[in-house]
Amino acid sequence: MSSLLITGATLADGTHADLAVVDGLFVDPAEAPQGATRIDADGLLALPGLVDSHTHLREPGREDAETIASGTLAAARGGYTCVHAMANTDPVTDTAEAAEFVADLGRRQGHCEVRPVGAITKGLAGEELAELGLMAKSSAGVRVFSDDGRCVSDPLLMRRALTYVLPFDGVIAQHNQDARLAGPGACAHESELSGRLGLGGWPAVAESIIVARDVQLAELCKSRLHVCHVSTAESVEVIRWAKKRGIRVTAEATPHHLLLDTSLLEHYDTTFKVNPPLRTNEHIEAVREALADGTIDMVGTDHAPHAPQDKDHPFDVALPGMLGLEQALGVVMDVMINTGRMDWATLVQRMSVAPAAYGRVASQGRPIAVGEPANLVLVDPSARGVVDRAQGASIAKNNPYHGRNLPDPVIATVWAGRVTYQRGT
Ligand code: DOR
Ligand code: ZN
Questions:
Q1: pLDDT of 314-326, one tens digit each?
Q2: Ligand 2 centre from 174 Cα, in Å?
Q3: Atom of ligand 1 nearest to the CA of 319
Q4: Is-contact 181 205, C-beta < 8 A?
Q5: Pick from 362, 363, 368, 406: which is nearest to 386 by CA?
Q6: Residue 218's Cα: distance from chain center in Å?
């Protein structure tokens, strides 16, 4: 029987508490056994374990970039107790067997809960629906479906997917980039800068046009739509409109779209190549405001590990994507909490409660209270440090925060009653 006694913690609402954990559940501290492992949490915040709506783990297929073990260790170090593992692996998670394979590896090797996301279309080809129903019925219990990395461009296929998942309460998560509005080498936010650098541009409208189309399809089908990695002011406006109409839409923002801007492309460093691309300040401000007011429901990291041989290319050829799990909480703190835009209770909603509800993960996003599953992160709100990509748990090192001074808040993470990370040990 594993047991913990965490003393003197402060909860998100500002109250102080001792917390005891026995066999994966919070219990009354008076019932903590004598031999319980003690953690002194004086001066630390105890928050529910974070849940990531959007993680790329690369296993199976690209274990040279990330594995389920390494990616979930990065998650634990970032304060996460659950991640949604995206389907763009090799093979693609487009069958019940593939989803069960990921879920099973997660159970055996994961440092947090791993919820497989199923592909919307077979092989992510955008042509034919994948086995959505079988993935939902499988022991993996898939609830989220996404071709992430690729946009489902065909509106009829999108309508069919939204209709198909309705009976089992599935959600269709769209990667919103209409490639037909960009040239073949598009790799940067379309702006004066992309022109000067000679980089093909993604116009902002290539995102919002898909969001506008899909929220209307979701309304038509009365189904659930999730807007991945919102990066433009216009997308925010569309989502605000859709929510006002009662359309069943949720949305996520990435840490990088909250902090980093397109000027980082100036020196063609492919670490900063990502889809959707880093934008300008007016877009960044709109995304921050939307995350504060709840138009954007949650933070999703879009943690996207890439091996050096896939990044060491000319900018237009390198693969898009950047790491996110280990610095996500620090970035959100600096952008949202330390600027007074958001309080801790709201951060818990955006980084734990909402993403757990999105994926229907019953054991996550729960309050820290007696009888609840013991998933938590201990946070030192004042700790900071300079990010060193070499210190990361991910196998890949494409960390866009390398060299930046950021909050370094995670002191310990507890998943299902087990300590999955503790600083200094
Ligand atoms: O930049 C990205 N990389 N955006 C995505 O949506 C997918 C991801 C990846 O899988 O590398
Ligand atoms: Zn995506």
A1: 999 999 999 999 9
A2: 8
A3: 11
A4: yes
A5: 406
A6: 22
Is residue 135 within 8 A of residue 99, CB to CB? The reply is yes
Active site residue 40: no
Residue type, 43: G
Residue 56 Cα: closest atom of ligand 1: 10
Structure tokens at 56: 């790329």
Instruction: Report the nearest-CA residue for atom 4 of ligand 1.
Output: 275
Non-local CB neighbours of 424 within 8 Å, separated by 6+ positions: none
> What is the distance in angstroms between the CA of the first residue and the CA of the last residue of the chain?
21
Residue 27: strand pairing partners? 20
Q: Which residue shows structure tokens 């209307």?
A: 216
Domains and CATH numbers, the chain: 45-410 (3.20.20.140)
Q: Model pTM?
A: 0.98
Per the document, the length of the chain is 425
What is the maximum alpha-carbon separation in the chain?
67
pLDDT, one tens digit per residue, over 75-132 is 999 999 999 999 999 999 999 999 999 999 999 999 999 999 999 999 999 999 999 9
